[in-house]
Amino acid sequence: MKRPPGVKVSKAHGKKTVAEEKAMKEFETMWSIRQHDLALKERLSKMRLLDSLIAKKEPLVEYK
After folding, report:
1. Alpha-carbon Rg of the chain, whole angstroms?
2. How many angstroms separate the Cα of 29 from the Cα of each of 32, 34, 39, 42?
3. Residues sharing a CB contact under 8 Å with residue 53, sequence separation 6 or more, in sequence order
């Protein structure tokens, strides 16, 4: 016959969920920072393109 889990084993199982929640919160934080960083990089890229277009002195050619 198997014995039921003891007090220490029960406590250890309860602590694993806390560690998983902490990992999930850390992942969500990193993901939100990454999304913010990507948005800033995209905006910076667009600003560089706009600056390069403004810096040109010759008029842009229209294609049909």
Report:
1. 28
2. 5, 9, 16, 20
3. 60
Provide the residue type at 23 as one letter: A
pLDDT at residue 31, as a whole number: 96
Tokens 């999930």 belong to 24
- Distance set, CA 55 to CA 19, 43, 47, 52, 62 (Å): 53, 18, 12, 5, 18
Model pTM?
Answer: 0.54
Q: In sequence order, what are the residues at sequence separation of 6 or more whose Cβ sits closer than 8 angstroms to the Cβ of residue 63?
A: none
The rounded distance, in Å, linking the Cα atoms of 54 and 10 is: 67
Q: Does the pLDDT at position 64 exceed 60? A: no
